[in-house]
Write a structure and sequence with these properties.
The complex is a heterodimer of chains A (329) and B (370). Chain A is an alpha/beta fold and 329 residues long. In chain A, 37% of the residues lie in helices and 18% in strands. Chain A is built from 13 helices and 14 strands. In chain A, strand 2, helix 2 (44-48) and strand 3 form a beta-alpha-beta unit. The longest helix of chain A is centred in the first third of the chain and has 15 residues, at 6-20. Chain A is globular and about 60 Å long. The N and C termini of chain A lie far apart (44 Å). With 370 residues, chain B is of the alpha/beta class. Chain B contains 14 helices and 8 strands. In chain B, strands 2-1-3-4-8-7 form a 6-stranded parallel beta sheet, with helices on both faces. Chain B has a two-stranded antiparallel ribbon with strand order 5-6. In chain B, strand 7 (232-236), helix 9 (240-257) and strand 8 form a beta-alpha-beta unit. The longest helix of chain B has 26 residues, at 35-60. The chains are: A alpha/beta (329), B alpha/beta (370). Chain A binds chain B through residues 29-30, 33-34, 37, 55-59, 61-62, 85-86, 88-89, 123-129, 264-266, 293, 295-298, 300-305, 308-309, 329, and chain B through 65-67, 117-118, 123, 125-128, 130-131, 143-148, 176-177, 179-181, 207-210, 214-216, 282-283, 339-342, 344-346, 349, 360-364, 366. Bound molecules: thiamine diphosphate. Thiamine diphosphate sits between chains B (96, 144-146, 174-177, 202, 204, 206-208, 273) and A (29, 58, 60, 82, 86, 89).
Chain lengths: 329, 370
């Protein structure tokens, strides 16, 4: 094991995959000369040159579509969105082109592309720069979506994504880049898409979540433990494909579920999870499932408002207490 | 004439010297502006500078959060152009918006309170530095997505024409926005339908860390207008008088028959892209920044005024002291303004609350019930 930051883990994944496969290239705003707006691509320009580390104009729609076209010819582009907030400009190419290439051509063309970058709120960036857009991406069949929470998963999932023959969206936590964690030293550390992981074993309540919120859930679990409650934290890691077996297993074990996500509640990922559980494990439930999400409003700038709008460990603890019938408010 | 990229780079700031409008200023160095008008322009430039110096301080001690993009070095662009407007005219811009907001008439108090995230801010603390708005001042605000404001400007132009008014819209953007599809779609519609929009590209040479010539196949931004058969001009964005002259011409055209114009204002940003970006080191050298600072638009304007006997040292001293006081007071006002509370979280998402069905899908009701 070596200790790496989340940022370094992503950097390693990119470097290793570019080393392994000459068709892999990285493209996006400031990825080269500036070493990446969030420094994920640090040093890659020096190592791989301008042909494979490509700085683009601020033209999300254009360079994303360019990537899709190049992927149809068999290259394996990694498109960096400076943040997913700006990917909204490119959604037409992701949703209308990339997601449909394989289906519309009846398999004649593949689209082995990766879209990646930071997502979610950082600090006081307000409504246009603080959005967790997982549910928008997950809505479209044809796309795969992974949301690594740890350096090990960041490295492993990105490597899996680059090798995948379908378009894969890797949504990285904007506030996770500096987080350190153990990454296996194995020669080729790949985390398969679609495999959830129990990040903390527990028996009383399941906190199901993904991405940055895994850490909020773990914090909540630690707080609950002091109160005699043993919470399990299940990290979905991938939102499509979704590890339904892992979800059912934890429900069957604890019989109580709180779902935590950074995005909005309305038509959020949680809606899908709740539906899946009620359809496939209704009999195992001892309480209604509760969701902890961002407030159903655009993200405000003011510090206190922002704090109130974001999911927090305290709110997760309160939700767990409610599904355990330990607290009614 | 073909220039090498290096040669173009050094001749960047100072549009008139290499732009198509060179020499038009010779006749009247001050455009016939009266002393009080000139002093008002100087006041706004100095206010912009001092206000931002104050905000940089406030940012450093954590009073201001999030992204904060300073305008220091570019003051001549906003002041020269907005002061050619009538109050009913509109202004819209991107996230580097403090100075535009103040020149358009939003008080320093309301801007500073917004930067502090307080209820008396011009967006109630919900927008912050990148999102300042003023409906009374016809300031359509600061927008955070590169290029996103450009179609909105065209919409404002559409509304003006629809209502058969002779107002105009000034739409600011950085040079990097010019590569966006939204820019081209917007220029086409504005030209096609003769909408009174003046697109002002603040070419400060860098979109974050990317120099213009690394991002565009065409160096001369004003030429992009020719694709839409639209008039264009290059202005010296470090010269408030040139900026005013060029904008005034465009405004006159727009008022007359709705003709839009694309203006490239060649300028330079003295600070980093945002508070987290270094002034120099990564994508430009210290020498380059220092060299550009020699063209400081405020110093240049001061010299011009003095040379033409329009300003004494005493007048300048008095003005600067007053401005310092205004900025101090703004910071104090912001500090004393309350933070928005829980009840503000759910306001303004919708303009009207529907009595049928539910608008919100979280704990709002529970919060309301306490
Ligand atoms: C669509 C989009 N992509 C990326 C960004 C991130 N970003 C913010 S400002 C900026 C540089 C823009 O430069 P320019 O338009 O020249 O304006 P300046 O900052 O120089 O005033 C970038 C890349 C963004 N806000 N929106």
């Amino acid at each position: 094991m070596s200790t790496l930051t989340y940022r370094e883990a992503l950097n390693q994944a990119l470097a290793e995959e570019m080393e392994r496969d000459p068709d892999v290239f990285l493209m996006g705003e400031e990825v080269g000369l500036y070493n990446g707006a969030y420094k994920v691509s640090k040093g890659l320009l020096d190592r791989f040159g301008e042909k494979r580390i490509v700085d683009t104009p601020i033209t999300e729609l254009g360079f994303t579509g360019l990537g899709v076209g190049a992927a149809m010819l068999g290259l394996r582009p990694v498109i960096e969105f400076m943040t997913f907030n700006f990917s909204i400009l490119a959604m037409d190419q992701v949703f209308n082109s990339a997601a449909k290439v394989h289906y519309m051509t009846a398999g004649k063309y593949k689209c082995p592309i990766v879209f990646r970058g930071p997502t979610g709120a950082a600090l006081q960036l307000s409504a246009q720069h603080s959005q967790a857009l997982e549910s928008s991406y997950a809505h479209f069949p044809g796309l795969k979506i992974a949301t690594p929470a740890t350096p090990a998963d960041a490295k492993g999932l990105l490597k899996a994504a680059i090798r995948d023959d379908d378009p894969v969206v890797i949504m990285e936590g904007e506030l996770l880049y500096n987080m350190k964690g153990e990454v296996p030293d194995v020669e080729d550390h790949v985390v398969p898409l679609g495999v959830a992981e129990v990040k903390r074993e527990g028996s009383d309540v399941s906190i199901i979540t993904h991405g940055k919120m895994v850490h909020v859930a773990l914090q909540a679990a630690t707080a609950l433990e002091k109160d005699g409650v043993n919470a399990e934290v299940l990290d979905l890691r991938s939102l499509r494909p979704l590890d339904v077996d892992a979800i059912l297993a934890t429900v069957q074990k604890t019989n109580r579920v709180v779902y935590v996500e950074e995005g909005w509640p309305y038509v959020g990922i949680g809606s899908q999870i709740v539906d899946t559980i009620q359809e496939e494990a209704f009999d195992y439930l001892d309480a209604p499932i509760l969701r902890v999400t961002q407030a159903d409003v655009p993200m405000p700038y003011a510090k206190m408002l922002e704090r109130m709008a974001k999911p927090s460990a305290e709110r997760v603890v309160a939700a767990c207490n409610r599904v355990l019938y330990r607290q009614t408010v | 004439m073909a220039q090498t990229k290096a040669a173009r780079k050094t001749s960047q700031a100072g549009g008139s010297s290499n732009g198509r409008d060179a020499g038009a200023r010779k006749g009247d160095a001050l455009l016939g502006l009266k002393k009080d008008e000139l002093h008002a322009m100087l006041y706004q430039m100095l206010l912009g500078r001092r206000f931002e110096e104050k905000s940089a301080e406030a940012y450093a001690i954590g009073k201001i959060g999030g992204f904060c993009h300073l305008y220091i070095g570019q003051e001549a662009v906003a002041v020269g152009s907005i002061m050619a407007l009538r109050p009913e005219d509109y202004v819209i811009t991107a996230y580097r918006d403090h100075v535009q907001a103040m020149v358009k008439g939003i008080t320093p108090n309301a801007v500073m309170a917004e930067l502090y995230g307080r209820v008396d801010g011009c967006a109630g603390g919900k927008g912050g530095s990148m999102h300042l708005y003023g409906a009374e001042q016809n300031f359509l605000g600061g927008w955070g997505i590169v290029g996103g404001q450009v179609p909105l400007a065209v919409g404002a132009g559409f509304a003006i024409k629809y209502r058969e008014q002779d107002n105009v819209v000034l739409c600011y953007m950085g040079e990097a926005a010019v590569n966006q599809g939204a820019f081209h779609e917007s220029l086409n519609m504005a030209a096609l339908w003769k909408l009174p929009v003046i697109f002002i590209v603040e070419n400060n040479r860098f979109g974050m860390g990317t120099a213009w010539e690394r991002a565009s196949s065409l160096y001369d931004i004003s030429q992009k207008a020719s694709a839409y058969d639209m008039p264009s001009a290059v202005a010296d964005g470090m010269d408030v008088i040139d900026m005013r002259r060029v904008t005034q011409e465009a405004i006159d055209r727009a008022r007359k028959d709705g003709t839009p114009t694309l203006i490239e204002a060649r300028c330079y940003r003295f600070m980093g892209h945002s508070m987290s970006d270094p002034v120099h080191g990564v994508y430009r050298t210290k020498e380059e920044v220092e060299e550009q600072k020699q063209k400081d638009p405020i110093t240049r304007f001061l010299e011009l005024l003095k040379d033409n006997n329009q300003l004494t040292d005493e007048e300048l001293k008095t003005m600067d002291a007053e401005i310092q006081k205004v900025c101090e007071e703004a910071a104090e006002f912001a500090d004393n303004s309350p933070e928005p509370g829980l009840e503000d979280l759910y306001t303004h998402v919708y303009a009207s609350e529907d009595v049928h069905g539910r608008l919100f899908f979280d704990r709002k009701n529970r919060l309301e019930q306490g």
